[in-house]
């Protein structure tokens, strides 16, 4: 069924350049698929579960990469690259890790010639990087070691494909760092989580909650996992980034040791942290509307499109084109700007196309505007049109892009905060989840109790234990009634 639908989608795509026909409010899932396909962010692959990231989608990823890469380099992180394949024995070393990842590992048919071992395509690279740490680390003087790699990973999940959100292969970055002390390691586990929060909120205009995962939701092999979670318009939470404090287990099983100042052997403390191309899916979901994408100016590959309004014979050698070109030149040093001077399409057709692709700001300029020395700025996020003097255009554009970024964040923030509901009974929890809310409840912290909640409320998951909110004095666990240790956010998730 699904396969047929996809093929039909592609055929429609080729036949016409229709806008999005699904309504975001009524059929969110179909709306999302159409927005991604028709804006040209990505496409389905001939291999089930895999995706093709098209130039617009990849350009957004490059901008995310660039912003995040600059930040982590300030903390002394250096980029490196490790092999795609992981020997089976590496997985087996850390028992919890092996158990957690084995159901979704893809094995290659060829074996390692020397050891005869099976080889897996990396679902994550802790084991292969720890093997290198063992070779690199000698003394305390070598610490800390902070490496990051930008790469692809494969997790052979059998779930339904959803472009950017659920695919068997995706792109990500994974940071891996080792330290002399647990204090330093834990401090930096939080540092990278905060970098993700800044990236999401300041660049992507996506507000997030941050906190700790419960025991049953933490990364396989971690002491604990920190997470940032965003709320999607359909009431599902999306895990946007994670940072894991891995303690010393991986270090011990991979014999990673160093000679301390005391001339004795010590075991370092390990952390890893990552975010993926699913952030592009989050941008689409959070900001998009029924016309298509709405890209935050700070991350948009193209921030401004200038559309000259041309009539009849004026299409070539027109004063409107010359003025539009003048404006482009004035803006190009500071902004990512393009001019759409195609003559085979009407202005209205062009407006629709750029709106579908989510370009934050459109500048319209026509013959009458020239006479008045003006042009019109159209904001993608609100549809608002502003008349601006062509002479002071650079300042006006700068302010408007800033406003758009801020308005997009504030709108998303309002959505998040207005959809958090405090619940104090299982009945209220079920109701809140049915109403597509993010439910906040007092919880005892027991994995068994969490399991029971999952059994009783279909599709529910614990998203996080917030850092800065504690249960009221004397509060009882929502399920078992025992003394609450923490507050937990519950939601369905992607
Ligand atoms: Zn309980």
Structure, described:
There is one protein chain. The chain folds into 3 domains: 17-287, BirA Bifunctional Protein, domain 2, CATH 3.30.930; 304-401, 3-Layer(aba) Sandwich (Rossmann fold), CATH 3.40.50; 420-493, Translation Initiation Factor IF3 (2-Layer Sandwich). It has helices at 2-15, 28-39, 55-74, 88-93, 95-101, 126-136, 182-203, 249-253, 278-287, 319-331, 347-356, 367-372, 393-418, 426-434, 447-456, and strands at 42-44, 51-53, 78-79, 85-87, 106-107, 119-121, 145-154, 169-179, 209-212, 224-231, 236-247, 258-259, 265-266, 269-276, 304-308, 337-339, 361-365, 374-379, 385-389, 420-422, 438-443, 460-466, 486-493. It has 15 helices and 23 strands. With 494 residues, it is an alpha+beta fold. The strands form 5 sheets. A 5-stranded mixed beta barrel has the order 9-10-11-23-22. A 5-stranded mixed sheet has the order 16-15-17-18-19, with helices on both faces. Strands 4-6-5 form a 3-stranded antiparallel sheet. It is globular, with a radius of gyration of 25 Å. Helices cover 37% and strands 24% of the residues. It binds zinc ion.
| Proportion of residues in helical segments | 25-40%
* Lateral strand order in the biggest sheet: 9-10-11-23-22
How many alpha or pi helices?
15
Average per-residue pLDDT, rounded, comes to: 94
Low-confidence spans: 1-16
Sheet with the most strands, sense and barrel status? 5 strands, mixed, barrel
Structural class of the helix and strand makeup? alpha+beta
Strand content is 15-25%
CATH superfamily of the largest domain: Bira Bifunctional Protein, Domain 2
Named once each, the bound ligands are: zinc ion
> Number of DSSP strands?
23
Please state the CA-atom Rg, rounded to the nearest Å: 25 Å
Corresponding CATH architecture of the largest domain: 2-Layer Sandwich
Number of domains: 3
User: What is the CATH T-level topology of the largest domain?
Assistant: BirA Bifunctional Protein, domain 2
Q: How far is it from the N-terminal to the C-terminal residue, by CA?
A: 21 Å
| Gross geometry | globular
**CATH level 1 name of the largest domain:** Alpha Beta
